[in-house]
Amino acid sequence: MRFSLPAVLLASLVMSTPAAAQLPATGSLVPLWTGPVPLATGTGPEDTPALTVYRPAPGTATGAAFVVLPGGGYRGRAAHEGEPIAQWLNSLGVTAFVARYRVSPYRHPAPLTDALRAVRYVRAHAREWGLDGRVGILGFSAGGHLASTAATQFTEGDPAAVDPVERVSSRPDLAVLIYPVITFTEDAWVHKGSRTNLLGEGATAEQMAAMSSERRVTARTPPVFLLHTTADAAVPPENSLLFAQAMRKAGVEVELHLFEGGRHGFGLGEKEGPIGTWPLLAGLWLHKHDFARETTVTAKE
Known about the structure:
The protein is an alpha/beta fold.
């Protein structure tokens, strides 16, 4: 059933809604903290978490946003898993924010602090930026581990916080995990470089278990889209399988695509044959969850 708003009320609502033009321009770098950065040991770019803004074409935005976490083994952030991914999201009408999160020599909890702050920051500024407050998180490889950690270890907002950003929830509404690192406890499948860079050489069994995302899934974990390949030698596909099993056990929606063959780190996969269809599959999934514009699939005869 549809209801019509009185013209005067409708005009009032339109006049009170902030313009989307208030969102910083594409390419703008937005620091996640304007004051001292928690856990920071310096003041340079690698000590200062920030978001790079990517805006959809005018008139195409759905109102939803995604935080993008490039991979890099918690020692760097791969460029091909940043801007090209944001531009793909823009083509679906999704506003994207590529995160410059802290990596080694920073250890846990600095990267997670940055990822959760990124979700909070976008959500807290949604109204003034012309967004609707829905925020997803997308990560590749170690960035996928960070995204899975944000999806399973988020915190609610603190209504009493002095910083208004900290008053809103850091729970992502959706998560997209591409060849993600997931487990830190299963030695046959763990990416040891990511584990060492995040937790250090002397990590205890308890610390590794706490950062194994398949162990942290609950009914509050948001719906997740998972993608992996069977021949991934760097991060075995069992990582995604473990997470999908945990999602099923918790009764949370999950979509898993396991492609035959394929290397690690392919990004959008334009030169990877059938693997390159994953952005289409993910776009359909995002549309199903009302994040993205409709995607048309045409079958060739």
